[in-house]
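Retro notes, item 3 of 5
We never archived the inputs for the zinc ion complex last cycle. Fixing that now. Sequence and ligand:
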Amino acid sequence: MRSPVHEARRWLRGMLPWLMWPMLYCAGLLGAGAAFASHAPLLWFNAMYLSLALVIAACERWMPHEPRWLRDDGETPCNLAHTLLTKGSAQVAAALVASAPLAAATAVAAVHAASGPWPAHWPLPAQAVLALLVAELGLYIAHRSAHQWPLLWRFHALHHSVRRLWVLNTGRFHFVDSAFKALLGQLPLYLLGAPLAVFMWVGAVTAVTGLLTHCNIEMRTGWLDRVFSTPALHRWHHSKVLAEGNRNYGENLVLWDRLFGTWYNPPRRPPADIGIDGRVASRFLAQLVQPFTASGVRQIMGMPAVRRHNRPSGAPETGEPPVRKT
Ligand SMILES: [Zn+2]
Ligand SMILES: [Zn+2]
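Structure as it came back at the time:
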């Protein structure tokens, strides 16, 4: 007969995949709340974000969804550089505004002057939920456009060019892609006159959800898949098969996916073989430049290179950015 301790451990091991997403999500939001209540919210939020990323990375080793995704793909320096460039520059801008009281006061006054229909008298959690719903519509439109409009796909392809999903892919976005999403996600909130605290909470929820959607932890999310953008849904979004990949555009919530018919969660395992048909440069700076050059765009789109008439036959082409087959 098995001991109660053994049975308890067996039960816990069975429950852990179900507990993992809610526990990490709540831990991230509680950490964000503590950071925002401190005297150095930006510093403590970054500390919380880094801590959560490290905990997720450890959990990926402990209970991976795809063991083969644990293998190094050589993309870590690029992923780190993109994360620091996009998220770092946004935070430096925020810190500059926060450290200039006059500019901050002017910005806040401008927001309040424009405040029209925003229900600023609601409790902050209710305002944050409303803001998420509004921001998600802009994020949904931006993300879906990035998949369906070649002019934007050339930037978004960088995010989809990875061959494995793990926590560090969260920040792998071209800065043009990030700026476009931020514009469409945040502009409606500015126009509605949402206060600064609401922007901070939308940013916090998006940051925590993003770490989780890309993680390689074996999780069971059940009914949560019908509300939140979970790892299970996002793994379908990274599928090579267009009919599977052009789904689940939601960043935090899947409300708009469900309303517009792009929610996708069939009862089978998402593909482990992910990526794109096109080719993306292998080095960080080349990845930034590639969408701005004609030859780079052709590679991203998976189109054959244009042959130059004045090039001797058999000679290698020049001027092409270094590429990696994806
Ligand atoms: Zn996408
Ligand atoms: Zn992704």
